[in-house]
Structure formats: C-alpha cells, structure tokens
Amino acid sequence: MGNTPTTPAAEAPYTFTASSQSWTPLSTTTTPPPLPPTTTVNIISWNIDFMTPHHSVRVVAALSHLSTLLPTPPSATIILLQEISPSALPEILNNTWVREHFLISHTTAIGAYFTTTLVSRDLPVAGVRRVPYSSSYMGRDVLLVDIPLSSGSVLRVGNTHLESLRHPGVIIRPRQLEEVVELLKAVEAGVVAGDMNAIMQEDERLPERVGLQDVWELQEGVDEEEGHTWGYQPPQREYLPGRLDKVLFTGSVDVLETGEVEEVGGIGRRLRRVGVGLKYTLQREEGEEDEAKSDWVTDHYGLWVKIRAGIRESTD
C-alpha cells in the first residue's frame, strides 16, 4: 500500500446565517444527532469543467438542475463538485438554494480549480479535511467529510479529482488512490467519488487493485457504454468515451437500488447518471445583436448513488 498521507486537523463546515447574511463555521451545538443505519444517504458527484467559457453560469445551471432532481428540502444529501473555479465559488455561496439547505466545505478559493462539497443541513458533520496527495503535479487532493454514525464510528465521504493525462498520470493515479484507501479504511464506512480520470487500460481495474469496490460493478446486465460519463458533450477526438467518473467504497456501506431511471440513457439500478444532454442558455445582453447561446453545462455526466452506512449487506 502507498504512503499514509499527513492528515490535517478537522475543520468545521460553513453554514449560512440569515441574521448576519454571512457564511460562518458550524457550531457543534447545532449539529444533528449521529446518523442511524436506517438513513438513506444520497451522494452526487459531478465535474463541472472549468476550462470551457462561462464557468460561473454553468455551475449555477448545474445547481439549478440538481434542485429539480432532489426533494425540497433536500434530505441526507452530499454533493461532491469537481473543477470549481475562484469565479464560480461566489456563485455557489450566493445561491439561494445552497444557502437555505446546505453546509459547504469551504468559503475561499484554493488554486485555479478545486473540489467543493455540499452537505444538507439535516446531516451531522464531525469535520472537514482537505488532504493533499503526496504525489501530484497538479495540486490534487481528496476532500473528506466525516458523518458521525450512531454506532460510534464514522461515514467518511471523499471528493476527489485524480491526476489527469496519460503520462505521468498513469503512474500517479494509483499512488493517489492508495492514499485515499488508507484514509477510508481508518473508519467504519468509506466512500470516495469524483473524476478518477480512468483514461487508460491500466486504470480500469485500479479500484479493485487498491482494495475498493466499484458501485458500477455491483450491477448486472448493463452495457458498459451506459456507464460512460465523458466523451459526448461534445464528442471527443483525443480520447474515447469512457467511465472516467466513479463511486467507490469500502467497509460497512450498503449501496441501494436508486428506484429511478433517468430520462435519457437510463442506468437505474444502483447508479444513476445526472446531466445527460443538459444545456444552458447564455442570455443575450441588451444591445447585442447575437442570439442567445445554448451549450453543454459540462463535459462530464454526474453520478448519483444511494447508500446506508453502519450495516453492511452482502454484495458478493
């Protein structure tokens, strides 16, 4: 196994306070009770490509889409976003839906792009940690949120964006995921999701090699193409479409049937794609002659799973 990463001290997530109209660290006295094993937790992971123009507008469109998929108020929901830019973070912090219903992992930008995690207010949070990888040319890390369980242990949910590109990414990604495993196996139940950049044959079985289970592999009778999360919005030439994004887990985690089939290219079963075919419209400003522009919200599909932690049913 790889090096055990240095784990920073846990910090409190931020909550929006209406009276002061500001985001402040969550007080431990206002945290909900520990999570019972009967609670179904929604985990949604989505990479919102920061390199394409109008990133802030597209992030808002993604949040708006999620608000239509989730109940009001969202219940037991963790949203893992990758490739959030400094210009987009204020849009998240100022978003009414986010302010009313979620805690946020941080309120300041970290580099040119970074991961950001939202946790619905009804979930208890023991702490948030951003753990830099010991090996990364791109400043990558795993952003951890710890949810206390009624068993006395923790559900740890990681948000990550593994090293990009073929080389040296193919060498670095295993090291990074090994470090995630060390962090997840320190608690009773661990989940990590995000852009795993699985672009090479060597990446296909990486989760299994480091000791993680892949939610996709729990499904039967589903075509591999239905699991692709990248390569269509728009069609890519350099890389083939693939299952770049994954949800992985270890320990006392039970992955549930989603109970839903998405509108386009449905997977259903235990894994649901989000944002397939989703576009945004950039409104024409007054005085401009060009018509309103419509384009993809992001080049990645999101992934949505439902889990319970603390009681593990056999999936073997």
* Distance between the ends: 23 Å
How many β-strand stretches? 17
Outline:
globular
What is the string of helix and strand elements? EEEHEHHEEEEEHEHEEEEEEE
Low-confidence stretches: 261-268
User: Cα-atom Rg, whole angstroms?
Assistant: 19 Å
| Proportion of residues in extended strands | 25-35%
Can you summarize the main beta sheet? 7 strands, mixed
SS-based structural class? alpha+beta
> How many distinct helices?
5
Say what oligomer this is.
single chain
DSSP helix fraction: 10-25%
Average pLDDT score: 91
What does this 3D model show about the protein?
The two termini are 23 Å apart. β3 (41-47), α1 (55-69) and β4 form a beta-alpha-beta unit. Strands 3, 4, 5, 6, 13, 14 and 17 form a 7-stranded mixed sheet that branches. Strands 7-8-9-10-12-11 form a 6-stranded mixed sheet, with helices on one face. The chain has a two-stranded antiparallel sheet with strand order 1-2. It has helices at residues 55-69, 89-93, 96-101, 169-184, 206-210, and strands spanning 14-17, 22-25, 41-47, 77-84, 102-104, 114-120, 127-132, 141-148, 154-161, 189-195, 213-214, 245-251, 253-255, 272-274, 279-282, 293-296, 302-309. Mean pLDDT is 91; it is low at 261-268. The protein is α+β, with helices and mostly antiparallel strands and 316 residues long.
